[in-house]
Write a structure and sequence with these properties.
Blueprint: H1 2-8, H2 10-33, H3 41-76, H4 92-117, H5 122-131, H6 133-150, H7 154-160, H8 162-168, H9 170-185, H10 194-212
Helix pairs in contact: 1-2, 2-3, 2-4, 3-4, 3-9, 3-10, 4-6, 5-6, 6-9, 9-10
């Protein structure tokens, strides 16, 4: 059974997930070392780090619904293992990895902009925030992600209790701001933000349907499963 195999080989799954998170950074490093950053190196660095952060944030938000969907799929296909939500608890342990990787790329994105575009000119940075909406949206997204990353440990989950869930619901706001940042930076005629928009719209629509009662809720649909270390 695939579900049972994945659970029993969680360390291998975690390593594969970690490697996937590292791929954009490693690809950039390889291009830096080979002096192959193209005609606009700054644009490439900013786009890769920013897009990676948005993709990883969307993947983080998908963990809770994915757990439910896989449970339903296992039940529908009459699998012997995987029909209970607890059979997929190991997925929750990947969320922290995805979230921290997202924050790392977002931080790298902000650092590259501050260092190579602004030259650490903070007066110019303030002017950019005031005059360009996409800079403000990106800054707000980063400011939201910072406390989420700082409170991602098990000790902080236990310390904050139910307030942890309330705080981490802000991840949806960070995703929306990140997507707006991406759209405002995209030149007319390009469709690159559309896949991210479709994925986030699906996740937001699904959660709205749960909270409105259009879809049946389940124990843990609001992230409650995060309060207990999964086995």
């Amino acid at each position: 059974m695939l579900a049972a195999w994945l659970k029993n080989h969680f360390q291998s799954v975690w390593r594969c997930c970690f490697s996937a998170c590292m791929l954009p950074a490693l690809a950039l490093l390889a291009r830096v070392l080979s002096s192959d950053l193209g005609p606009n190196p700054l644009a490439l660095l900013l786009h890769t780090t920013g897009r990676s952060a948005l993709v990883l944030l969307t993947a983080t938000l998908a963990i809770t619904p994915l757990r439910r969907w896989l449970t339903n799929l296992s039940a529908y296909t009459h699998q012997r293992y995987g029909k209970r939500l607890s059979d997929w608890n190991w997925l929750v342990r990947l969320r922290r990895l995805l979230g921290l990787s997202c924050f790392a790329y977002a931080l790298a994105h902000a650092w590259i902009f501050a260092a190579f575009d602004l030259g650490y000119d903070w007066s110019a940075a303030l002017s950019e925030v005031q005059e360009k909406p996409y800079v403000l949206a990106g800054l707000l997204a980063l400011l939201i992600l910072a406390p989420l990353a700082a409170t991602s440990t098990q000790s902080m989950v236990r310390r904050l209790g139910r307030h942890w869930r309330r705080l981490h619901r802000l991840s949806y706001a960070a995703a929306v701001l990140g997507l707006l940042h991406f759209w405002w930076l995209t030149k007319p005629g390009l469709i690159s933000p559309w896949p991210d928009t479709a994925a986030l719209t699906l996740l937001l629509g699904y959660r709205a349907a749960l909270y409105s009662g259009l879809l049946e809720r389940w124990d843990g649909f609001d992230g409650k499963e995060s309060l207990v270390r999964p086995t």
